[in-house]
Every structure is written in C-alpha cells, then in structure tokens.
UniProtKB/TrEMBL annotation:
Annotated protein name in UniProt: Vps41 beta-propeller domain-containing protein
InterPro entries: ARM-type_fold, Beta-prop_Vps41, Clathrin_H-chain/VPS_repeat, TPR-like_helical_dom_sf, Vps41/Vps8, WD40/YVTN_repeat-like_dom_sf, WD40_repeat_dom_sf
SUPFAM superfamilies linked: ARM repeat, WD40 repeat-like
Region (Disordered): 1-22
Cellular-component GO terms for this entry: HOPS complex; late endosome
Compositional bias segments (type: Acidic residues): 10-22
Per-repeat ranges for CHCR: 542-690
Keyword rRNA-binding found: no
C-alpha cells in the first residue's frame, strides 16, 4: 500500500507542479519557542554553537527538555523556563524523559546507566538507580503516583518497582537485538523498539504479544540513523515507522487460548503496510491520522534536507495525504535523523519538534492565517471575500484581521505596482485617522500626484486639521490649477479651512488685468462663502458668467437684480423665461420687454407667453409682432384687442389657412365673423371645400351652397358633398339607434314595475292595522278577516277602510282617520 503523496516537495511533473505547489496552502504554522544558545553562558557566539538539547517530553502543563550536559529544564508551552523546577539529574547526556499523566513525576535516563525519578512537588519521592549498561529509554507508568512502577531497557525489558525496603527489578524479556531506545506504555501493553525491530509486551499476562523485525532495506545510511518510531493510536492499535516504511498493527485477543487462562492471550496483526516517498524522523498517531516528522533525504556528507510535517488520513484501505508542510529549524541540516523528536499536545492540538539546537511549535493555521496566505499570494479579491463573507464554521471567524488590515495590504500592493488610481479608491477603507490621511496627502503633494487623491479626501469622519486643507488649496493655486481649486472650493464645506487665508492668496494673483476666468470664479465662491453676496454678484456680472442665475435663484436676489436686467439678458435671454415660468408676478414690470426678447430670440415661445402674461402693452406687442412678421401672434393680439375682422383677414390672406380661420371664429363666437368668413370664401374653391368639411355644425350649409356661383369649379366638391351626406346618414342612424335603446329601456322598466306591483307582500301576525291598531290576523284562528296592503306598506283590515278602500288613510291628506 502506498500513501498518496501528491503534495510532496519533490517535483516530478515539471512546471505545472511548480505552479500547484505555489498555490498549496499549508495546514500548519511553525514558530521557534527556544534555542540552545539561550541556555549557554556565551550567548553571543551563535555560529558553530554546540548541541544542547537531547530529548523532550510534553505534558498539558509544561515541557520537559533534557540537555547534553545532563540537566533537565522545564518550560511552559511558549518556551519560557520555570526556574524553580530545574533539575540537575545527570552528568551525562539525557537519553529519554517520561512524565506521568498527573504531571507530578519526571523520569529520566542517561548514557552512564543511571535512571532518576524526580518529584516536582515533593522531593521525598525522588529515586536514583544505576544499571550496569547505558539506558536509552525510560517510561513511567501513566499512573505512577499510585503504582510507583516504571519500565527501563538495555537489551532487556525491565519492570522497576519501589518495594518496601529496596528497589525491585523484574526482567520481563530479552529482545536480543541491541539496546532498547524507545518505550511506549498504553494501559497493560508496552511497546519497545530497538535496532532489530519492535516488540509488544503484555504486562498483565507477563508474556510477549509479538515482535516485528525492521523491514527497511535502505543500505545507503548506517544502521541506527533512522531508528524505529512507534506511537499508540489506542490500546489496540500501534503505528511503527522504519525510515520510509510504515506498518499499522492491531492487537487482538487470541480465541484459541481462551480456555487455558483467565487472562486473554493477545496477538498482533498487520492491518496496513506501505512505503513513503520521504524518511520518518518522528511519529505520532491521532484519531487514526498519522503525523510524520519527515525529511526528504539524508547523507553523511550533506546532512538532512527538506524538513516537513506530514499528515496521512485513512481512506478506505489506503491512506491519503492531507498535509505536507515544509519548514525549517535552526541547525536542522546539522541534525541526524535520530536526533529529531516529535511530540503531540492534545489539549492545545499542537506539535513540538526538537533537534539538538532548537525547539519549534507547530499549530494548525487559523482563519487569520488563511487570510495571510491569500494576501501573501496577492489574491486580494479572495482575501477580501474571505474577510467579509467567512464560512459559517465556528473557527472561520477572523480575530486578528480587520477590514482595515486586509485593505491596507491590498493598497500597499497596488502602490508598489504603481496602480495609484486603483489604490486611492480604497484609502477611505484603510485610513481612519486624520494623521494617517495627512501623511498620505503630504506624500502625494511631494510626488505631484494630488489630483488622484483629492476626490477621496474626507471632510468629516475623520475631519483633518485646517492647515492640511489649506495646503491642498494653496498647492492648486500655486500650480495654477484653477479648475481643480474651484472644484474643491465648491465641494468642500467652508468651516474646515480658513477662508480669509485662501481669499488673500487668491487676491494676490488677481491684480493683473488678464486674470483667468476660473480664478475669478474662485474669488466669487470665496466671497459667497464669507457672506459677501454683493461681491459675488458683481464678479459674476462683470464676467458675464451664467452662474449668476444660479446665485440669484439660490439667494433669492430678484429685487437686487432689477438694475441689471439688461446685463442679465445679454448673458442669457432665457433667464426671464425661467423666472416667468416659476413666478410670473416677479416679472410683471418686464412683460413688454419680454415680448420683444421672445420675438428676437425665442419666437417659438412667444405665443405661450402672450396667452399667459397679462401685463404687457398690447399695442406695443402688436407692433413688435407685425415688425417681426409673426402672423399667428399678430392674429392672437388682434383678437385680444377686439379687432377680430383684421385677425381673420390675416389668417385668410397671409396664412391662407381655412381651418385656423374656422377655429378662430369658433373661439370668438361672433356670428358676424362667420358671415365675413363665408363672404371671403365664396370665390375660393379650397376655402369652400374647407367650410363644407369642417364647419358643417357651425354654419348653414344651405346658405353657403346658395351663395356659390353656378359656374365656379370646386375641386373635390363631390367628395365634400358625399361626406356631408354620409355624416347626415350617420347622424340619423345614431339617432335611430338611440331611440330604439330608449324604447327598449322604457319597456324593460315598465315590465319590472308591473312585476313589482303584482308581487305579494309578507304580513306577520305582529303587524297592526294602521286604523284600529289591532293585529291584522291571528295564528290561532282558522279563518282571518281580509286585509289590504297599500304601496306605502301600511296594512289595514278590509272592514276598517270600507268607506274608502282605495286610499291609505294614513298617507292621504284627503281622508284622515278619526278616533272611534
């Protein structure tokens, strides 16, 4: 079985794999927590520093590190030493360290064959034992505080116990394969590794469960360079790694021997075996995942290369790679594979990695690290998306990053790539204080790139200091960029800078006769902001600037402009038109003048004005229209002045428009004008045809036809007469249809009325006679007297109205009831 190593460091597929490797996001982040130079007297000489660390053990509360000098140091998980717990355990290098589950006792062994048990909180339990051979491994019972048992090994696995009077040693089994260098204790099972292989011993049954010899066939390196690495996944699963070979074995109860002993006999089975593309220098197993501290290669001459942390997860019957993160440590190239050590801390879900020169900590990267990765790869769109819309997972929330930090990285990259315009658009998301903005503004002024930045400069939240706004305005003034200066003066509120300072600076440049128009506009804007409206008006009038009309509208200066009407009209003749449209009364005194202006500049608007305005001199207006040859306006004015006959003549003779003449006669309602129109038309065939087609309801067509000469040829007369007849027929048809509809409706209503009158009326026994006031009938009687009900719904006994049975005695004014 081979592990999936698609993310291995070695590139075998060319440039495509290089690109994929660049896109690969690491799973872990690595940081050194201490190095050997911190524990030497001469800390300055770090070059060729000797190795200091020899082994390590990790507990939930602390880390215990053995030194080559024989000392044992205790530090927290951040690498800070705890001075009161330092132990002078040995005089030779410490080979192995073991900690009980409670963290009360530390066991250590050294090359001179000594094993020391040190109590952290009570020195009464300290033990020191000497063995005849070097001891490379020691392992405390996880429950050492109660059992006082631990395992050591030279070539033999030895159980050590504290007896009543003396130390007790029990030789469990001789592995006959060299010194035991690694021990792992899990419940009643002990795994031991030496150069020959790995054995599992059942302490309860006091028998060997099984032994697996090393299967690594690598002959390029000396034996012992890649010692066996072992790790319990649980009490029934053990993982073994020899160089690049991995075996997963399971421990099961052997059913063949159940009847021979009350203690089950166990056996080992190989569940998985596969080769790796790297060499293992450390191993731990976590929830069936295999975590390897690995190197790419090792030679005696070149040392180690490409240190990495790799995770393999089970997938069916195989394992696939979930992480392969390269990293480096101080002195890693000078470290032999057997000198590395990997330990796992479940409480913090992190790894500690030791070599003789330093200790590093490997933690899973959090969501902020993911954003860091995207920023480093310059995937800023993805980084922004990751920050603003994180997944719904609990751990997928940025804690360290802010919107400002993400966008700042983006802006920094854009600025570095000279994408200034794109970068400045993001400045409001990055710079939140006045000081930050002012620093950027001064930098852009220095680079002569202020134009790019000014659209985004804030005037509130944050509000910058007044001198910085003045610096911007004066920069544009000095560079003669008056349009930009005008834009900012218009856009910015007047309370963020000193108006008098800017006004004085502008005045210094407006003394010449050839002052640019844009600069004069700036001066007018400053004057308005300072409340000097008269000065602003004067400047605009002098410039003949169309903005004067906006000023008049904005400040309601209608009375002040009367002396300057001629100037205003010279600037824009549409101004009075706009004022008249909004407030006609404000221009009453200028209506006659407006007639002249409309006739001169906007003749199409004159008719509308003449109809709406009422304060112009009709005779002057008529003279203007006649002079400008505006016949329709002349017709309107003639009609308004009561001279309809002249107006009609203009329509007929100048406009030659019979339809307009008909319309004019209809509007005036003067019968004499109709007679005039007929008289003027009887000799003009086209006019006669127009009257026949359009004035049939206004004039007597018979009279018109009688006045037409018999020999006058009228083109289209037949069609006109046919149209008259058709219109008449249509009118008669419509009248007949209306008559039929009325008759039908009358008959329907009559039938409905008759049906209503013939219908019955319900009478209840509670109804009273309107005359005698007794019930009209009783349910108890078989036969009730006859009754009468009138349309007014009054009910009577028939005998009560015998004298006048056809008249309601209540409603009638001629027959009133009298009291009997």
């Amino acid at each position: 079985m081979c592990a999936d190593t698609n993310n291995s460091i070695e590139n075998e597929e060319g440039d495509d794999n290089d690109e994929e490797a660049e896109e690969y996001e690491p799973v872990f982040k690595f940081c050194p927590i201490t190095n050997s130079s911190e524990f030497r007297e001469n800390k300055n000489n770090t070059k060729n520093a000797p190795a200091e660390f020899s082994c390590m053990a990790v507990h939930a509360r602390f880390i215990v590190v053995g030194k080559t000098t024989g000392e044992i140091i205790i530090m927290d998980h951040m690498g800070h030493t705890i001075p009161q717990y330092q132990i002078k355990a040995h005089t030779y290098p410490v080979n192995a360290i073991s900690i009980d589950d409670n963290g009360d006792y530390i066991g250590s062994c050294c090359q001179e064959g000594k094993v020391k048990i040190s109590g952290l909180f009570s020195k009464n339990e300290d033990q020191l034992h000497t063995f005849p051979r070097p001891i490379k491994a020691v392992c405390l019972d996880p429950n050492f505080s109660k059992s006082k048992q631990y395992i050591t090994g030279d070539t033999t696995l030895i159980l050590n116990e504290r007896g009543t009077f003396r130390h007790k040693e029990t030789k469990l089994i001789d592995f006959q394969g060299g010194l035991i260098h690694t021990l792992r204790w899990k419940e009643t099972l002990i795994a031991a590794a030496n150069d020959k292989g790995v054995g599992v011993y059942d302490l309860r049954a006091r028998r060997l469960v099984g032994f697996l010899e090393s299967t690594d066939t690598n002959t390029d390196v000396p034996r012992g360079i890649f010692p066996s690495r072992i790790s319990w996944n649980d009490s029934t699963t053990l993982v073994i790694a020899w160089a690049s070979t991995v075996k997963v074995i399971t421990i099961t109860n052997d059913t063949m021997y159940e009847h021979q002993s009350s203690i089950p006999r166990k056996s080992i089975n190989i569940a998985a075996s596969f080769k790796l593309e790297f060499f293992v220098c450390g191993l731990t197993s976590i929830n069936r995942d295999l975590v390897f501290l690995s190197i790419e290669n090792f030679t005696i001459s070149d040392g180690t290369s490409e240190l990495s942390l790799t995770i393999l997860s089970p997938s069916g019957k195989e394992y696939e790679e979930k992480a392969h993160d390269p990293f480096s440590m101080q002195g890693d190239q000078q470290t032999s594979p057997f000198q590395f050590q990997l330990e796992y801390l479940p409480d913090e879900q992190c790894f500690f990695i030791l070599n003789p020169y330093s200790i590093s900590k490997a933690e899973r990267r959090d969501y902020d690290d993911h954003i860091d990765f995207l920023i480093k790869k310059q995937k800023f769109d993805e980084a922004i998306q990751a920050f603003e819309k994180p997944p719904t997972r609990i751990d997928a929330k940025p804690k360290r990053h802010t919107q400002q930090s993400v966008y700042l990285a983006y802006v920094t990259s854009l600025m570095g790539n000279k994408e200034i315009e794109k970068a400045v658009k993001l400045f409001p998301l990055v710079y939140k204080t006045a000081e930050e903005w002012e620093e950027q503004i001064l930098l852009f002024i220095e680079r002569d790139q202020l134009d790019m930045l000014t659209p985004y400069i804030p005037t509130d939240a944050p509000k910058l200091h007044a001198p910085i706004y003045q610096k911007i305005l004066e920069t544009y003034l000095q560079k003669k960029k008056y349009d930009k200066l005008k834009e900012l003066l218009t856009k910015w509120p007047s309370d963020i800078y000193d108006l008098s300072v800017i006004d004085q600076s502008i005045i210094l440049q407006t003394n010449s006769e050839k002052t640019p128009q844009a600069l004069l506009e700036c001066s007018a804007i400053i004057a308005e902001k300072r409340g000097d409206i008269s000065k602003t008006l004067t400047i605009f009038l002098k410039m003949q600037n169309i903005q004067v009309f906006q000023l008049i509208e904005r400040k309601q200066l209608y009375e002040k402009i009367l002396p300057n009407i001629q100037t205003l009209m010279a600037i824009n003749q549409n101004y009075l038109d706009a004022v008249f449209s909004r407030k006609p009364d404000d221009t009453r005194d200028f209506h006659t003048r407006q007639v002249s202006l409309y006739a001169e500049y906007e003749p199409t608007k004159l008719m509308g004005f003449l109809r709406k305005a009422g304060n112009y001199n009709i005779q002057e207006a008529l003279s203007i229209c006649e002079k400008k040859r505006l016949p329709r306006e002349t017709v309107f004015l003639c009609g308004r002045s009561g001279n309809g006959r002249v107006a009609l003549q203009i329509i007929l003779n100048e406009l030659n428009d019979i339809e307009e003449a008909i319309q004019f006669c209809r509007e005036t309602g003067d019968k004499k004008l109709w007679d005039t129109l007929i008289e003027q038309s009887i000799n003009r065939p086209d006019f006669i045809r127009g009257l026949l087609n359009h004035a049939g309801g206004d004039i007597d067509l018979q009279d018109l036809i009688d006045k037409v000469k018999d020999d006058l040829k009228i083109p289209g007369l037949r069609d006109s007469l046919c149209k008259i007849m058709q219109d008449y027929n249509i009118q008669m048809s419509i009248s007949e249809c209306c008559r039929k509809i009325i008759v039908h409706d009358c008959l329907a209503l009559r039938k409905q009325t008759v049906t209503l009158l013939q219908g019955g009326y319900p009478v209840k026994d509670s109804d009273l006679c309107a005359k005698c006031h007794n019930p009209v009938y009783s349910c108890d009687l078989l036969t009730n007297p006859p009754i009468s009900v009138f349309f007014c719904l009054h009910v009577f006994h028939a005998k009560c109205i015998e004298t006048n049975p056809d008249v309601c005695g209540v409603c009638s004014t001629n027959a009133l009831f009298t009291t009997a």
